[in-house]
Design a protein that fits this description.
Two copies of one chain form a homodimer. Chain A has 179 residues and is α/β, with parallel strands linked by helices. The first copy, chain A, has one domain: Dihydrofolate Reductase, subunit A. The first copy, chain A, contains four helices and eleven strands, in the order ββαβαββαβαβββββ. In chain A, the strands form two sheets. The first copy, chain A, has an eight-stranded mixed beta sheet with strand order 5-4-3-6-1-7-11-10, sandwiched between helices. A two-stranded antiparallel ribbon of chain A has the order 2-9. In chain A, a hairpin with a 3-residue loop joins strand 10 and strand 11. The first copy, chain A, is globular, with a radius of gyration of 16 Å. At the A-B interface, strand 7, strand 8, strand 10 and strand 11 of A face strand 7, strand 8, strand 10 and strand 11 of B.
Chain lengths: 179, 179
Amino acid sequence: MKKKNIVFIAKSLDGFIAGKNGELDWLHSIPNPDNNDMGFNHLIDEIDAIVMGRTTFETVCGFEVDWPYRKHVFVLSNSLKNIPEKLEQKVTLINGTPQEILDQIYERGFFKLYIDGGRTIHNFIKEDLIDELRITTIPILLGGGFPLFGDLTNPMEFELIESKLFLNQIVQNHYKRRK
Amino acid sequence: MKKKNIVFIAKSLDGFIAGKNGELDWLHSIPNPDNNDMGFNHLIDEIDAIVMGRTTFETVCGFEVDWPYRKHVFVLSNSLKNIPEKLEQKVTLINGTPQEILDQIYERGFFKLYIDGGRTIHNFIKEDLIDELRITTIPILLGGGFPLFGDLTNPMEFELIESKLFLNQIVQNHYKRRK
């Protein structure tokens, strides 16, 4: 099976994925009357499972919507001991280093993965375990917050695969790791 | 005269304009056999003058090329007392707050300005004095360095005017401040 780890995320013009106080409202600052999903469902079609950090999991659980994912979700956490009963078939807790996590997920038969959540993305990029970045840029400067990218020891080159425009305001670029 | 302050700059995928040790070589990491200037000369046609910080001025002076600007350059500095003799007709030293600097430049009859240099850009954005951002993204994660954007007290919304692709790898987005 072809393995692939994909990041799909929206950031501000200045590179933040959440505001100084965790704000996410700016993600909806561009009117989207037809609820264009900007490739989200296409991504979910493509992947086998989703890997996310505990904070992202808890944020999604806090949204007043039904569980939004139709693929299996692995939640990375050293502290969570169990998940809400109604999600038991849909969510698996997992922990370890990024490579240990991937090995456990591959053993269960999931190979194409959507990697989500700020700290999780940082940790996977740091270990050079991300194959594709699909980055959607909202035209706003937040001026602070949680950055999409963290420190790296060495630069990493990427190759632009595609650049798309949504709602006439939002640019989404797909990059593949150049190795 | 219509006043306008434009930032035209290249950044890495993670938002840096220079590497951890000031490196700029990554700006040329995408082969550019025909020396596509990615809109630089068009920008220079459009503007009346260039405003840059001392560090950028000294960096340009250090390049082993002739003086590259065909419009007047204002160099912001509190410490520089004079400029090289051969540039006396082309460069003017200036200091003050961003607004004081603009007022001095307007008095001399220059209204459309290209604002350049990391700290200068930070200071002008902080005072909400930038009308247009033209940002070229090189597909590389530097992992650290001098960031294009700094902290802000409040978010600032922009409007996408145009998104261009150069050399099949480099996306350049033009944004206008939404006020």
